[in-house]
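This part of the workshop introduces the protein records we will be handling. A record pairs a protein's sequence with a compact description of its fold. Backbone structure tokens are a discrete shorthand for how the chain folds in space. The question running through the whole workshop is how a given chain folds. The record below serves as our worked example for the rest of this section.
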Amino acid sequence: MPQRILRFRIRQDGLVEESVEGVIGQSCQKLTERLESALGSVQTREPTAESYLRQQDQTQSNSAELF
């Protein structure tokens, strides 16, 4: 499992900036929604390149033909 990193920066004006690394696709919002609701209202969201990626299935199918 890849490492997930959440970073918070509290600015001098009191605003909190949050950044997430290591999370693929839209699961980032699910991961942070409870934290964001506890901190207050979200003013803006800026998706990273990782948010546009799709999570690939790790399943592998094998087909065999018997003669």
About this structure: Strands lie at 5-10, 16-21. The CA atoms of residues 24 and 50 lie 5 Å apart. Confidence is low (pLDDT under 50) at residues 57-61. The two ends are 40 Å apart (CA to CA).
